[in-house]
Amino acid sequence: MVFSYKGGELYCEDVPVSKIADAVGTPFYLYSYSALIDGIKAYLRPLSRIGGIVCYAVKANSNLAVLRTLFREGAGADIVSGGELFRAVRAGVDVKKVVFAGVGKTEEEMAYALRMGILMFNVESVQELEVLDKVAQAEGKKAPVAVRVNPDVDPQTHPYISTGLKESKFGIDVDEALDVYMMASKMEGIEVVGIHCHIGSQITKLSPFVDAVDRVIELVDRLKDKGIGLKYMDIGGGIGIRYKDEEPPTPEQLIDAVADRVKSRGLTLIMEPGRSVVGNAGLFVTRVLYVKKKQNKTFYVVDGAMNDLARPALYNAYHEIVPVKERGGSVVADVVGPVCETGDFLAKGRELPEIERGDLLAVMSAGAYGFAMSSNYNSRPRVCEVLVKGDQFFVVRERERYEDLVRGESIPTFLLEV
Ligand code: LLP
Fold first, then answer.
1. CA of 358 to the centre of ligand 1 (A)
2. Which three-class secondary structure string do you get for 271-312?
3. Protein residue with its CA nearest to atom 9 in ligand 1
4. Is the pTM of this model over 0.85?
5. In this predicted model, what pLDDT tens digit does every residue of 31-44 receive, in sequence order?
């Protein structure tokens, strides 16, 4: 385990977490290099056997050092904005392994991605296809396209992160996709190369993935009958991780379950994992400011908040919380931050040891959608990010300063008059 206790102290690899806290202050995100490597290799190993491609979902954790770690092992990138493409390029991605999803790509973003020469655009609507055709022609290029189809399967996960149902804003319904492909195949600026689906996130069962692939394969066969042959089948991301006691399938199990079907159609399998690569490679470290007792309730007020780690407030998500120095006793407490919102909590009614002011707490499984979703709400500078490799640690993003909070803002001159 990359995060484990030695002599009553929590370590990340060979570095005591408290040593990092002393050096960089709190709160901060902490990532383990070796856990990132293990996370991406769990996909690269089985996929390389069948010539597949891993496009890491940059949105889960877009820190340059994290991206660089994954790209250096051979991962590509799944991006959803020009900003993510910029980051991926900065981190040295192989652009031939970049796929671009999202329901609202702008013309500027399309042109940028075309100039960079990405692998394909995962197109989500007819109008988007028409605009991409136009932009590509203006650039003197053909845009490689996969249609994102919506297989209408229930991923049995949190409704906010389930995307493959008919009523969702994502993708094109499977029944309508054939017509869209016919249309695309006649467009001057479009080259049809693949098919894409992504049904949701934090999925802990194999069957929704397999059902989705089956539905998409049916369409692949129908397309072939119409003379439309494809190269790539991108099945998205979505494999869950263990936050508490979940038992998600491994990447290898999923790949084994679908590989034959995909290969027998001569397709290259693409996967876009995010959470399952980085989620358990990171934690969020926060310090207890106050122990507040109210009637018969205990609050541990910590210096980290919903603006730093939004998942508990946003999805009522469970993140395990452990003390950085082992403590005895048992208290049922709410772990809350300083932000002025009732929803600002990291845990509610949680059984925790007796903790004192000044103690450090580690919020586990925070490597995915942690820092990436953080904000400056309540004018809180965003925290720093640290990468540990063996017995060394590196600050891979500085803590913001107050000056950073107002960067780019200005007061119009008329307001300066008194
Ligand atoms: N591909 C597409 C098209 C996606 O929309 C997503 C995630 C992924 C891949 C990566 O999915 P993953 O392997 O990470 O499950 N903020 C939420 C999760 C939102 C997921 C959005 N899309 C959370 O904190 O749970």
1. 35
2. ECCCHHHHHHHEEEEEEEEEEEEECCEEEEEECCCCCCCCHH
3. 237
4. yes
5. 999 999 999 999 99
